[in-house]
Design brief:
25% of the residues lie in helices and 31% in strands. The chain has 9 helices and 25 strands. The protein has helices at 4-8, 32-43, 76-83, 85-108, 128-140, 171-178, 284-295, 339-354, 372-394; strands at 21-28, 48-51, 67-68, 116-124, 145-148, 159-168, 183-185, 190-194, 197-200, 205-213, 230-241, 249-252, 259-263, 266-275, 300-312, 318-323, 326-333, 408-414, 417-423, 429-433, 444-446, 451-453, 460-462, 467-469, 478-480. Strands 1, 2, 7, 8, 9, 10, 16 and 17 form an 8-stranded mixed sheet that branches. The longest helix is centred in the N-terminal third of the chain and has 24 residues, at 85-108.
Length: 481
């Protein structure tokens, strides 16, 4: 599975690090958040080194739908009630300014990345009242929001909230240009951090006055305890040709609805969100394709892919100081499916902090914030984790190896206990340890992507046991037979 972005753009490879070095700031992660942070620091005269475990934009950035918008679903009514008007306005301002910041970079650097303005809509098939409330709140906070009764989609809607002058682009083409002058090392995973020294997998050491975690999900468990303050969710996208021009970017107000946008001659349709590790039945792509064929007869699939997003307990990203105990460490995580503007917001806030400048929008994103909702959601997430840590491993595995059909994976019992097993179409059997190496949760099979996924904290592994997504830092133990 390959996104339309990776099919249409290739970024030049960089060497791995092969020496010790010193720098002002080490940025861990060369996705959009890490690249933008490095770029902003360079603009402000800061020597930054970016360390990437795999390849530039090789993680979640390549799997985005690439909508640059301050329209983040039905968030603003909730933010106003939860945080008050001042902090809700900080969130709104930061993301609306991010839209303008992308435009400024594209124009000033003459970046050919298919950047174009497009209106962003949140629509509903059943609830007009909540949309009206969301529009009024967004407008009150200074956002370009208006209520409309129809959209250019083959759907019977009750209404939609329209944010004017938002944008969309090809994120890899954008990153290819802004990363060209940055000091980036690929295939350089950071395996340990002690005070201000980072040690790579090859044993090289980087001494940095500041450390930025732009790794999607922070891999240092304590301090910070981000594993207890977030969970991860997956969503799916199918790209079609022969799809209609829909004149905008759209998401459904209701959970489980579909999103739409055009990219050049293509139509991108996404949806089918679920908590990572909770897709044992599969069928996510089929659901999107079946709906797409009904809505847009004659379309043809070009490619498909999926994304993973960190979900915070209160619905706002964690951007700023990693913890009160580590004043020289920073974090950008919990982007809530809005990685484009959140990446730019992270770059602005963290680069300001490192250079000693006050950022007027930083407070609402502070990782040190806590609320009643944090406690409630953390309890929900921890109950799920306890189930996977205790109940699930003790439950018997009803499937045996002989029950397994080619092309399928299951948890089975063998002489060594419960194992994750996948049988290839040629009859090869791949056996892996079913415990996640992060904190020991039992993994679950994802039939849509042929992967082993952790329902506790979202780590993912392919059927051979190779690590796909963090916070885990190593592969599963595995064998073939």
């Amino acid at each position: 599975m390959q996104s339309i972005w990776t099919k249409t753009c290739e970024i030049e490879k960089r060497d791995a690090i092969h020496k010790d070095m010193k720098c002002n700031t080490a940025v861990i992660g060369a996705g959009l958040a890490g690249i933008l942070t490095g770029y902003r620091l360079k603009e402000k005269g800061i020597d930054a080194v970016i360390l990437e475990a795999s390849n530039i934009a090789g993680g979640q950035t390549k799997n985005t739908t690439a909508k640059i918008t301050s329209q983040h679903g039905s968030i603003y009514s909730r933010l106003l009630k939860q945080f008050g008007s001042e902090k809700a306005k900080q969130y709104a301002n930061a993301n609306q300014e991010a839209v303008k910041a992308y435009e400024s970079l594209v124009v000033s650097l003459n970046i050919d990345c298919d950047f174009e303005y497009a209106d962003a809509y949140i629509y509903s098939l059943s609830d007009e009242k909540m949309l009206v409330e969301e529009q009024k709140t967004a407008k009150l906070l200074g956002l370009p929001a208006e209520f409309v009764s129809s959209v250019k989609l083959p759907l019977r809607i009750k209404g939609a909230v329209k944010f004017t002058n938002q944008a969309q682009f090809n994120p890899l083409k954008f990153i290819k240009r802004i990363s060209s002058e940055l000091q980036i090392y690929e295939n350089t995973p950071v395996k340990a951090i002690e005070e201000n020294t980072l040690t790579t997998a090859t044993g090289n050491k980087i001494q940095a006055e500041n450390i930025v975690f732009a790794t999607h999900f922070p891999f240092i468990n304590s301090p910070g305890c981000y594993f207890a303050r977030m969970h991860q969710e997956r969503s799916y996208v199918v790209c079609f040709e022969n799809g209609a021009g829909i004149d905008g970017m759209y998401i459904d107000f209701e959970a489980g609805g579909l999103s739409f946008r055009n990219y050049n001659q293509y139509l991108l349709i996404g949806g089918e969100n679920h908590r990572t590790g909770e897709n044992t039945d599969g069928g996510r792509y089929n659901y999107i394709i079946n709906n797409a064929n009904q809505l847009f007869p004659g379309i043809k699939e070009v490619t498909r892919w999926s994304a993973q997003d960190c979900i915070t307990t209160d619905g706002v990203p964690y951007i700023g100081k990693y913890s009160t105990k580590t004043p020289d460490r920073y974090v950008a995580t919990g982007f809530m499916k809005w990685g484009m503007t959140s990446s730019m917001v992270s770059a602005e806030i963290i680069s300001d902090m490192i250079t000693g400048r006050k950022n007027k929008n930083a407070e609402v994103f502070s990782p040190q914030r806590y609320s009643v909702n944090d406690v409630k959601q953390t309890c929900v997430d921890e109950v799920k984790s306890i189930k996977c840590l205790i109940k699930e491993p003790l439950a018997p595995a009803p499937v045996t190896l002989s029950d397994l059909s080619p092309g399928h994976g299951k948890i089975v019992s063998d002489k060594d206990g419960k194992r994750g097993v996948y049988k290839d179409f040629d009859g090869t059997v791949y056996v892996v340890d079913i415990k996640c190496p992060h904190l020991g949760c039992q993994l679950e099979w994802n039939p849509d992507e042929k992967s082993w996924d952790c329902p506790c904290h979202g780590s993912r592994f392919d059927y051979r046991g190779k690590l796909i997504d963090n916070p885990a830092q190593k592969d599963l133990k595995g064998r073939t037979k």
